[in-house]
Amino acid sequence: MSIDTAVTTGTWALDPTHTEIGFTVRHLMSKVRGKFDTFEGTLVTAEDPTASTVSVSVDLSSISTGTADRDAHLRSADFFEVDTYPSMTFTSTGVTQKDDDEFVLRGDLTIKGVTKPLELEVEFLGEGGDPWGGTRVGVEAKGEISRKEFGIDFNIPVSGDKVMIGDKIKLHIVAEAVLQA
User: Fold this and answer.
1) Does this model's pTM top 0.90?
2) Domain segments of the chain as ranges
3) For the chain: N or C, fewer Cβ within 10 A?
């Protein structure tokens, strides 16, 4: 099914109550899922969707995996070191349209003072009015990073030349943004 990807031009703000910035990482023989509860972001849309821009800032202390002790450890110097590096940021550098409703969003991701390029596969979910008289747009994005590239390399060896925590972090974002007046 094709979705009309002609989006109203303007500035859109992420709606934190209808947006989730989540991740999955390998842990032993399973996977741990988590998300960040506090963030802000802006999408500036242009007539040509490939000229649109995105910027997001995430409060790393808002990490939530469902386990308080693990969340506290992730905030520590072993991982995010939130006292020194309180936020993670993403600033887009380009957009490529793959087909009617799929795009590749390229940008710079900064974690712990280290900036690396990130590509996100983005699906445009549509634009429409809301019950409060506003206009909303929805997207879903997926990508993957190496945590070690950002200096997050804490691990615990386990038997068989394995480690407790995987290096690859899968990112999953489902977002709604509201057109600003």
Assistant:
1) yes
2) 10-179
3) N
